[in-house]
Amino acid sequence: MRAELGKEILQEQKNNKLQIFYYGTGCSTEEKKQVISKALASIFTDAQITINHDLLASALALCGSKPGIACILGTGSNSCYFDGREIKENILSLGYFFGDHGSGAHLGKTLLQNYLDGNLPKDLESIFSAMPEFDKELILHNVYKEPLPQRFLASYTKIMGNYMQHDFIKNLVKQCFADFFIHQVEKYSLHKQVKINFVGSVAFHFQKQLNEVMNERGLQQGIILQSPMEGLVNYHLTTGV
User: Fold this and answer.
1) Percentage of the chain exceeding pLDDT 90
2) Greatest CA separation for the chain
3) Residue 217 class from Cβ within 10 Å (0-12 exposed, 13-18 middle, 19+ buried)?
4) CA nearest 103: which of 174, 177, 158?
5) Torsion of Cα atoms, 144 then 150 then 153 then 159, to 10°
6) Least confident of 1-15, 28-42, 105-119
7) Which residues sit opposite 9 in a β-bridge?
8) In angstroms, rounded to a whole number, what is the distance separating the alpha carbons of residues 21 and 8?
């Protein structure tokens, strides 16, 4: 079991019965849920075990028992419409190659594409070309030859954060967020009636630009969390489920 297990489950003692709530990427099918459930049951032999997708964890942490749209903006991106009890709509996220709009991978890919195509302003091109991270051979090797290229692409958000005062970078970030709203959030029929909430490192660190785009598009701002854990723990302790 991965070391991150301790970060992904909430354990609650209730009536001397251990309850384990596990939320993980890919836990959207019964087959995958059973794999995790059996692994946990082999360790916690007398526990009540509940397995769910990490998107539901984000919805519960962000919305609690109220309707809303829950979004994940980290290395990748995802979203759902949550009715206060369960996920009712989920616009398919197609991963970093075809989708993941607004994610760290999308931001990094967009920056590098502009750099490699020679579309950066001269001052930024001069600064970035002197950095080892912008070596063209390094970029192409990590994207096409190494595993997890989405994480490599997302690593460039740190550099973007350092140059957010530059209009080009600020506008690039805002356009990536606008793409996320266009391809994800605004496809939900009730997107104008409920608050839009976010969890994830990209949403947290670029929340000023994210809120600006939401204001420009007439969307209701909800809450932004770096991690869902605090909100998720609060939900389970408050509801007792």
Assistant:
1) 61
2) 66
3) middle
4) 177
5) -160
6) 1-15
7) 22
8) 8
